[in-house]
Amino acid sequence: MDFQLTQDQREIQALAREVAQAEIEPHVAEWDSEHRFPRELYPKLAQLGLMGVCIPEEYGGAGADFLSYVLVLEELSRADAGVGVTVAVHTSAVTLPILTFGTDEQRSRFVPPLARGEAMGAFALTEAEAGSDAGALRTRADQDGDGWRISGAKQFISTAEHAGTFLLFARTDQETPGAAGISSFILDADHVRVTGREEKLGLNSSVTNSIVVEDALVARDRLLHDENQGFRVAMATLDAGRIGIAAQALGIAQAAYDAARSYALERRQFGKRIAEFQAIQWKLADMATEIDAARLLVYRAAWLKENGEPHGEAGAKAKLFASETAQRQTAEAIQIFGGYGFTKEFPVERYFRDAKVTEIYEGTSEIQRLVIARSILGLTERSFAVS
Ligand code: COS
Questions:
Q1: Does residue 101 line the site of ligand 1, with CB under 6 A?
Q2: Residue 145 and residue 219: Cα distance in Å, rounded?
Q3: pLDDT tens digit string along 240-269?
Q4: Boundary residue ending a domain (119, 146, 178)
Q5: Which residue out of 125, 167, 235, 375 has the highest number of ligand 1 atoms within 8 Å of its CB and is therefore the one to mutate?
Q6: CB contact set of 230 (below 8 Å; sequence gap of 6+)
Q7: What amino acid positions are annotated as catalytic residues?
Q8: Same domain, yes or no, for 224 and 236?
Q9: Of the residues 232, 242, 361, which should be mutated to test ligand 1's pocket, given the most ligand atoms within 8 Å of the CB?
């Protein structure tokens, strides 16, 4: 067992930290209050290879490993979780599945522009009636001549209004309900119409859209992987994506802890620094311990994925624990800041708002527990699905 990061991993972590400090931290409060997607940031990240960290160089990426990618997400999210989710969805929910499941032609056509950050990616699975029960989706794709005709509506789609490439899931077998009749497709922006943008509790520097696809005719080669195997593509994608969201949650928790620790060492009450009171010490001790535990779960899941080992259960545990840690820690950070923590003068209220969604997207905490339970009990039947 080796708990040291490699030289390459440390270098990319330092690079991400530097760019976060220089290009994100000075602007993040403004992006949050103005609900502004920082379009201009992504070419800068792309130039440094951060839009394709774990994509091989031959496909336009930085050629680093999956743990390096997770380290980058952690550092970006420490500065701004909105940037973190944009990079996470782009990379692990769009670029990686095309690389993994695509034909040679699909990989060489779609992956390099994504990995170089020339096109941004959006993952279109969720629908109004298909959230946790992703297999209930109704967007349909019917064979039409040599291609597919696709129609449907999707919601809660990160980055859709800025995306050039969509990984979209549609039902290709109309007779078979549930997961079995679903396929995955690679669409372009002009196949998709953006119909709305959500007002959210947090993550204000990311955008979350509803979209429709209206009788879009796409060529046969837009089908990713085999027909009716799209649900497996979605699940395998989420197995890896959840490790990225866990890293995002870890970054938020770390930021909240760092702010609370510094504040406790400065703020004086009753004639001494509040860090000298046991009430505050115990809070910080618990926070540091939980962050350590979350980090070990997240890095282990990334290591398993990198080494081609099963990582669904480990990723679900990492996401479950890291997101619930982030939720607790950001609330504790506000508590340590007292009244100031409730104001916009300090960033901890933003961390609190941003943390919540990590318990929801890419599978709620309830779904993570379901995935873990099925795995540890050796059960896979649909009877475990939540109603
Ligand atoms: N990797 C590959 N294949 C998988 C898989 C995985 N991790 N998990 C399930 N599958 C396969 C199953 O093997 C099954 O195929 P077979 O019938 O050929 O064996 C098929 O997919 C259906 O699986 P299952 O019966 O388990 O599907 P359920 O409808 O019960 O759904 C859950 C399983 C609830 C786990 C799934 O719907 C889920 O993850 N929901 C949350 C969705 C989500 O995270 N949404 C967020 C979107 S991004 S914001």
A1: no
A2: 9
A3: 999 999 999 999 999 999 999 999 999 999
A4: 119
A5: 235
A6: 169, 170, 172, 182, 183, 184, 185, 224
A7: 362
A8: no
A9: 232
Note down the domain range covering 41.
7-119
For every residue of 85-151, DSSP letters joined together read: HHHHIIIIIIIHHHHHHS-HHHHHHHHHHHHTTSS-EEEE--BTTBSS-GGG---EEEEETTEEEEE
Provide the residue type at 173 as one letter: D
Contacts of 154 (CB under 8 A, 6+ apart): 124, 125, 126, 127, 139, 168, 210, 211, 212, 213
CATH of the domain at 41: 1.10.540.10
| 303 CA → ligand 1 middle, Å | 22
Same domain, 236 and 373: yes
Structure tokens at 204: 């204000």
- Per-residue pLDDT tens digits for 151-187: 999 999 999 999 999 999 999 999 988 999 999 999 9
**Would you say the pTM of this structure is higher than 0.85?**
yes
